[in-house]
């Protein structure tokens, strides 16, 4: 049986973590990028379908490929981030289920069922994207997730010829709390959105 | 600047955490339920839209209301769980943006735009559902997320007359590793799904 994490760990993951818009000049190593994935991949998905696909945009050349598709407000901070993850979803995820979920013929639950593919792909790819954010934070990194970009443009540039579609972007690095960090926005109180029945 | 969490914390959140199908006979208190929400709500969403809505099904009466809509494979374990969270999404989330995102007229980005409402509601409600799982784990609790249930049935029973729609269920408690814990399923290697560019 587990016990609660320390207050410092919970602060780092949730309470004092912020969405950063500026970054300290400190590299995110390839080893850290691999480690983020090795944690995020362990989070639960339906039938272990694991539809998230990732491109970690780190080199200057790759950043320049991404730049034309960024909204104006997201461009400068993204170009300055140590790395930008393109969190995407493979809508042919079901082709991998014989390997990922060998207990049952899970492929047959999806093949030819466009609505089930769409719903489960989106839900589980997005769950994995959130695990990625939490994994980066657990490793001492900060995140800046964004959806302000040209989705078809990013898909054509990075995922041409596949059924992989961008879901959101996440800048990753060491956040600069002194630059463009917005005041914390309000959240709903428990009783506004939740009930114990 | 943060540092990586301890190995024990990372194990608890990711590496040794599992999806449990049986539960130790130990209550999850209302205080713990509130605490899960207080952490999960701090995770990032687009324009702070926070579309997740929650029903924590804890009483015997509420469990009986949920039971008819559970798939056969999910019924017994859910009825036995200390609490089952209905993670749902309010597709009228944009009505709250003047409060949640006072910096801009964010309501106008969504009102009347069914596709934007659907995409952003699903994405951000699901991100918040993943934060909820990670929050429960960070508090020493275990989770069993599920989508095997009658979605329209749950919506009619718990969210009639609203635009709130169920997204997934999460059993929450102290997992019983000795009962019905499946072997860990394989995950993709980094190079199968990710690239550093």
Tell me briefly what this model is:
Chain A is an alpha+beta fold. Chain A is built from eight helices and five strands.
Polypeptide structure, described:
2 copies of one chain form a homodimer. With 197 residues, chain A is an alpha+beta fold. Chain A has a single domain (18-176), classed as NADH Oxidase. Helices cover 39% and strands 16% of the residues of chain A. Chain A has helices at residues 7-15, 30-40, 60-66, 72-80, 97-100, 114-138, 151-158, 190-193; strands spanning 52-57, 83-90, 142-146, 164-173, 194-196. Chain A has a 4-stranded antiparallel β-sheet, sandwiched between helices. The longest helix of chain A is centred in the middle third of the chain and has 25 residues, at 114-138. The radius of gyration of chain A is 18 Å and the shape is globular. The two termini of chain A are 26 Å apart. At the A-B interface, α1, α2, β1, α3 and α6 of A face α1, α2, β1, α3 and α6 of B.
Give the percentage of residues in beta strands of chain A: 15-25%
Average predicted local confidence, pLDDT of chain A: 97
> Which fold name corresponds to the CATH topology of chain A?
NADH Oxidase
Which quaternary structure do these chains form?
A: homodimer
Determine the fraction of residues in helical runs of chain A and give it as a percent range: 25-40%
Largest β-sheet summary of chain A: 4 strands, antiparallel
The CATH homologous superfamily of chain A corresponds to NADH Oxidase
CATH architecture of chain A: 3-Layer(aba) Sandwich
Q: What letter string, H or E per element, gives the SSE order of chain A?
A: HHEHHEHHEHEHE
Number of helices of chain A: 8
What would the principal axes of the Cα set say about the shape of chain A?
A: globular
């Amino acid at each position: 049986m587990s016990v609660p994490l320390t207050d410092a760990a919970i602060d780092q993951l949730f309470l004092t973590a912020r969405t950063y818009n500026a970054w300290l000049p400190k590299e995110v190593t390839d080893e850290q990028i691999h480690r983020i994935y090795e944690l995020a991949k362990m989070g639960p998905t339906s039938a272990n379908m694991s539809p998230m696909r990732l491109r970690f945009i780190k080199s200057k050349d790759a950043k320049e490929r991404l730049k034309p598709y960024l909204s104006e407000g997201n461009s400068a901070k993204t170009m300055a981030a140590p790395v930008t993850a393109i969190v995407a979803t493979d809508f042919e995820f079901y082709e991998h289920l014989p390997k990922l979920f060998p207990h049952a013929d899970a492929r047959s639950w999806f093949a030819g069922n466009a609505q089930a593919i769409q719903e489960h792909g989106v839900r589980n790819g997005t769950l994995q994207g959130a695990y990625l954010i939490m994994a980066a934070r657990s490793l001492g990194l900060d995140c800046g997730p964004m959806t302000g970009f040209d989705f078809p443009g990013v898909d054509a540039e990075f995922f041409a010829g596949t059924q992989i579609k961008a879901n959101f972007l996440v800048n990753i690095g060491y956040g600069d709390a002194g630059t463009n960090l917005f005041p914390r926005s309000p959240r709903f109180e428990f009783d506004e959105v939740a009930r114990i029945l």
